[in-house]
Amino acid sequence: MQYEAVIGLEIHAQLLTDTKIFCGCSTRFGSEPNTQTCPVCAGMPGVLPVMNRKAVEYVVRTGLALNCEISLYSRFARKNYFYPDLPKGYQISQFELPLCEGGYLEIPGNGSNTKISLTRIHLEEDAGKNIHEGSASDSFVDLNRAGVPLMEIVSEPEIRTAKEATDFMKKLRTIVRYINVSDGNMEQGSLRCDANVSVRQEGTKELGVKTEIKNMNSFRFIEKALDYEIRRQIKVLQEGGRIVQETRLWNSEKGITESMRSKEEAHDYRYFPDPDLVPIVFDTSWIDDIKANMSELPDVKKERFMNEWGIAEQDADLLASERSTAEWFEETVKLGADPKAACNWIKGDFMKLLNEESIQIDESRIKPGDLVEILGLIDRGTISGKIAKTVFEEMYKTGKKAGIIVEEKGLVQMSDESGLESIIDDILVKNTDAVDKFKAGENKLMSFFVGQVMKETKGKANPKIVNEILRKKLG
Ligand SMILES: [Zn+2]
Question: For the chain, what is the domain count?
């Protein structure tokens, strides 16, 4: 019997506002506990929330980027539950009337893209954080995170594999970073994901009993946890058992999902409209303004890199995957670089150096104009491609210009034929054995001679001219 998985995702993204959703407290990450709180986000009696306009704008921007319908009328609701990190006893969220409905996200499929439909996007506040470390008998509550604006994105159950789920998250992260609404930092929890997973016999329409896997905060964990959960459910069914509807957590140490609580204990949230907040009513002109000021999206950039500049699909994907990388690359081309040459340097030596330091391209000392300069030096034959790699590393470390490094270190390529000829003559005299063998047909010794010349000239000899002279002398 063949089984297929049915997966729907619920993603929480922390919005990049400076202040919280209903008060003026800072949203900065990593401060001392309870230093970013006030009576509103601490849930004191009698306080009133005031809507953060930027948070609403960011959700609308996301909705536009994800092809959603923006609701002209929406409302906040109270989601009631009791937990120590939620001082009000309810979370302000959205229920029947979310800010965005419908929409879709495209992920790479077999040959063409696969569209995954979205259900909705809504805005809500985050809760605080319970801390159990530091004392054997007490727990602590940090409310710095309480009231930080969160956007919840819900997909339809159209995802079929763990890989598709991971691709969905990667694409979503790229987009929220592009349009500057979230930093997508999964390690710090500003982007996290819950998944509803069930399996059914292939070809059937009816949904199986689902489990919910909570709080996955890395691409690797999402893929591993879903892979595990799908295999677990299939095994239970094959052995004649039944799936229990429950919430499960990924245990990364054991590499398994574990039951956290069953549906029987689940909450009834008693949602009702929040009487302290008025409904949100949009002018269509406000939405049009947001649309007009949006940056180009990654898929559009990728297509342009391929069609206008002849960049291979995989490379275009890589360049477009971060907005800073894409814009840096575009700048070098604007300054006169050959797109393919610039692409090769960025995806090769440059990315390697950036990854070692875990920094973004726009945080590097090398600016687009610096890459254009070194490409020119290679083009004109001033330095060899091999020397260029050394120069580039030096540029990366010191921020010096390529021309200055070449001059200071005397790295100009030797293309002067008579000079190279005398060096080559010396080498041939010192290696008569190898010369005889070469003449007897051991052609592969050519690279030995070239190597000797490079050693003698510290890599500065123009390899094209060295080859020509050697062929002439040995031919
Ligand atoms: Zn506050």
Answer: 3
The verdict on 223 and 331 lying in the same domain is no
Q: How far is the CA of 50 from the centre of ligand 1 (A)?
A: 11
Output the tens digit of pLDDT for each of the chain's 475 residues: 799 999 999 999 999 999 999 999 999 988 999 999 999 999 999 999 999 999 999 999 999 999 999 999 999 999 999 899 999 999 999 999 999 999 999 998 877 889 999 999 999 999 999 999 888 899 999 999 999 999 999 999 999 999 999 999 999 999 999 999 999 999 988 999 999 999 999 989 999 999 999 989 899 999 999 999 999 999 999 999 999 999 999 998 999 999 987 655 556 899 999 999 999 999 999 999 999 999 899 999 999 999 999 999 999 999 999 999 999 999 999 999 999 999 999 999 999 999 999 999 999 999 999 999 999 999 988 888 888 999 999 999 999 999 999 888 888 888 888 888 889 999 999 998 999 998 888 888 888 999 999 888 888 888 888 888 998 888 7
Strand partners, 141: 130
Residue 94 CA to ligand 1 center (angstroms) comes to: 20
Indicate the burial class of 271 (C-beta count within 10 angstroms; 0-12, 13-18, 19 or more).
Answer: middle
Q: How far is the CA of 20 from the centre of ligand 1 (A)?
A: 7
Confirm whether 262 is domain-assigned.
Answer: yes
What is the Å distance from ligand 1's center to 191 Cα? 22
* Centroid of ligand 1 to alpha carbon of 360 (angstroms): 32
What residues are paired with 251 via a beta bridge? 256
Distance in Å, CA 45 to ligand 1 centroid? 13
> Which residue range is the domain that position 465 belongs to?
417-474
- Say if strands 211-216 and 246-251 run parallel, antiparallel, or are unpaired: parallel
Residue 169 Cα to ligand 1 middle (Å): 30
The rounded Å distance from CA 275 to ligand 1 centre is 19
Residue 291 falls inside a structural domain: no
Residue 133 Cα to ligand 1 middle (Å): 25
Best CA proximity match to 393, nearest among 453, 348, 450, 339: 348
